[in-house]
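Dear colleague,

Thank you for sharing your sequence with our group. We've completed the structure prediction you requested, and as agreed, I am returning the results in plain text so they can be pasted directly into your records. Please verify that the sequence below matches your submission; if there's any discrepancy, let me know and we will rerun it promptly.
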Amino acid sequence: MEMNWTSLLPLVFMAVMGLALLAYVILDGYDLGVGILLPLATDEEKDIMVSSIGPFWDANETWLVLGIGVLLIAFPKAHGLVLSALYLPVAVMLIGLILRGVSFDFRVKARAARKALWNRLFSLGSLMAAMAQGWMLGSYLTGFDNGLWSLLFAAGIALTLPTAYAMLGAGWLIMKTWDELQLKAVRWARAVLLPMGAALVGISLATPLVSPTVFDKWFSMPQFIGLLPIPVACAAAFFAAFHVISKPKVVAAGYGWVVFASTVLIFMLAFLGLAYSIYPYIVIEKLTVWQAASAHESLVVIFIGVAITLPAIIIYTVFMYRVFWGRAGVLSYLAPMEK
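Please find the predicted structure tokens below.
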């Protein structure tokens, strides 16, 4: 296809949507992971864990709004197809995110007798959102096929994606906490690293089998040779994280950040591989980017809005992380007045 502004603009919006969803998966992924790990901590440690994500979790979800917003206005045909096929898991994800939001506020204001309930609901909401996102990813990769193997594939990702989020959450806690809670986070990371690795390998092997398009793009020569750096780099990042969490002295020496950074790198490489696998489709084997895009005149107007919104979100995100970076503090608040 000859590249001009008309044919390039849909790719620009595809890139913006991809960036937004990648940012969401990484940024909201670690706080979903912290929520999933919450039941394993003591009451005092739960407060520190929630404190570690408190300044960030609302802003992290802004990226999901941006990604879905771009899908809605720039690719309306794909939006209708994707969300109609994923109506139930999207509803489950939204219920989970609502539970998280309500629980996050109420656990701070609740009396001691009810605080445990809100902690459990916060963790449940995190798990629901993570599993729903796994199911959506699996369904998307199979082109929303409802055959048995496709459904089993989606269920497999729904069951394993929470381990990846838990690994992100454990890496975040290793950076943000100290003493016993940091050591617990290292143990949690050791517990979920291998399941996460097995899940990623399983997904990587199964995806080409359920999608002929993906199979052809990865296992044809010379593409196969050119793509080898992606799995090799993933393996290197995996073993870097494994090396650090296997040696508590390395964490104590200040290298705990390697665990989080390695996990983020794995997510980014996996996303890069996924983007290569599906291009030029926005819905595999059903809709290309250009078929799904709005009219060029509409995209030009939308581009002006995105050109203002995207830098604003990036600047705000960077500013927020700079202001609130550092070790998490202990939550302190006044108990509600007894009647």
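Summary note from our side: Residues 332-339 have pLDDT under 50 and may be disordered.

Kind regards,
the structure core
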